[in-house]
Write a structure and sequence with these properties.
The structure holds two protein chains of two kinds.
Chain A lengths: L1 H9 L12 H20 L6 H26 L7 H17 L4 H25 L4 H19 L4 E2 L3 H8 L1 E4 L2 E4 H19 L1 H11 L1 H6 L4 H27 L1 E2 L7 H11 L11 H21 L5 H25 L1
Antiparallel strand pairs in A: 1-4, 2-3
Chain B lengths: L1 H5 L3 H17 L7 E3 L2 E3 L1 H8 L1 H15 L7 H18 L6 H28 L4 H20 L4 E2 L3 H8 L1 E2 L2 E2 H19 L2 H10 L1 H6 L4 H27 L1 E2 L8 H11 L11 H20 L7 H16 L1 H20 L1
Antiparallel strand pairs in B: 1-2, 3-6, 4-5
Classes of the chains: A mainly alpha, B mainly alpha.
Amino acid sequence: MSTATALAGTRTFRPPKLDRRYLPVLGTMLVFGLMLVIGGLRYDNFLSPAVISNLFINNAHLIVLAAGMTFVILTGGIDLSVGSVLALSSVITATLLNAGWNVALVLPLAIAAGSLLGLGMGVMIQYFEVQPFVATLAGMFLARGLCFVFAPESVPIRDEGFIALTNWTMASGRWRLTAAVVIAALVLLASWWVLHRSRFGRTVYAVGGGEQSATLMGLRVERTKVMVYVISGTCAGLAGVLFAMFSRSGYALTGVGMELDAIAAVVIGGTLLTGGTGFVLGSVLGVMVLGLIQTIITFEGTLSSWWTKIVIGVLLLVFVILQRILTLRRT
Amino acid sequence: MTRIYKHRLFWPVVALAALLLACTLKRPDILGISVLDGHLFGAPIDILRNSAPLLLVSLGMTLVIATRGIDLSVGATVAIAGAVALTFIAGSHDPGSLGTALGAVVVALGLCLVLGGFNGFLVSGLGIQPIIATLILMTAGRGVAMLITGGQITTVNSAPFAALASGFLLGLPVAALIAYGVFIVIALLVRRTALGMLLEAVGINPDASRLAGVKSKTLVFTVYTLCGALAGLAGLIFASNTMAADANNAGLFIELDAILAVVIGGTSLAGGKFNLGGTLVGVLIITTLNLTVTVLGISPLVTPMFKAIVVIAVTLMMSPRLRGMLAGLRERRRYQEVNA
């Protein structure tokens, strides 16, 4: 793939060949487009602004989770804790707000809780050589247990400042944007910038491509590998705040299995679990595909909710086999 | 003394002993066993019985991890096995007969073999990463279980099937006899023959072992199939325990508990070596932990936190770096003592 870009650079007047790296993302885009077309043809009002707006509003937290997860998976790691950290952050938000704390203090605290857990897991992985799977599994259990220490029951949020934040919407015709969607978009923009425009992002790709080579090149591998878990934890903390805004409550049992949705979104978005290849914008497309499956099944009406899981599973299967074929052809 | 301290099961066994000690301190008579109606009763027997499904799943998981794989789909397989068995019994003419119960067991186990084989094919045949290959069934599996039960919690009455979890044989619970029996058979099979070594060879380097004449693809396929079947057996015990097929909650997080048990037992997720005895200790720790939390009067909802603490403690104590740091501390202290 790198030869393709090199050739495109030397022979200036040849139209640049499509980089093979983009193929999985293009596949996802194709599926997304197909789903939109099929949905539009089958159901009235499917392609309405309200439905598309809701797609973003309902999945804002998942977009943030998937963005953080992309960093981790790009280095070849995995983060199973994000669902529980999301719940923890939403529970912290709700409990502290109800205790009369100021919003401006509570939200950073809730996000920082995620960063702190991420830091702990990153240190376990990098300095104590615990496998990412095990370390983040421990983090997942720890965060879930802590949720119940804070609040075993669902905590409704009544704080006026917070409610004002959740009520803020921007509407143009029937298009709607909530504060959560705006925040998710900002996170996305920041992730894209960090991954593709910063030295740190380049190191992330380098670590995923080959850790030893990255070390030999003098890149700061250790720091980067800890940082990606901090980023993922921070994103999970932020996603928890977004979820609290979405549901206006904090509940210890939210986000069970959400880490799998995030991983599925990243994989469907074309990022290889072995690391080194993938795009954060692809992950967002993955989230949108997952959201669209849900929407279509709701529109279908007669299909039961469990079909969502089966369809996501089948879609995962197709994408994984597709990726496998692509990587086989490359080598 | 140092040999005991250095043994890889030292810290897991210490953790298990600490949990049991915590129980005994709260209720001194808890570890007693009494005989009632010719059956053995008591907390240790309960631990044996409750550990049965997790032991079966962890057993398959250990072998899968030995080949440098992982199976995330066992929880979904547990749910499917229960759903199939109970739907089969509910749909038969004579739910109470022994033949129906046997039929349900055979059908459920057969399907789980196929599901395990599907995972095995994805991993060994197509060469897909184990995490993602089994994630597919993990996601879709609960949907399939819901499809089988029609989204309802199927409940049945069948005495022979119920005996699987609550029955007693020779004074011991049937579930425990099955699980520990399977454990002994598999332990003998992999450690008294070359099978265990071959599995480890595949885990260390699949290509090299293939070149050395090990049928690595067949082995990997077999291990995933076996893991599916064992998860199915665990699912039958689960279903028989409640006599209700709950597609959403049966075996929820059992894959994570099983991986924890394997890791606590000192088997590395990097593959290449495995320790069935360690897995047994890991399973007992997790089952005892549930008991300890209840005995100490802590809300069972907080249990995940204690699991996390046990895992973090055990993995850190086993990590080479911390051991090196501790050894360095001891050296320095000895050096200071000599100098002083």
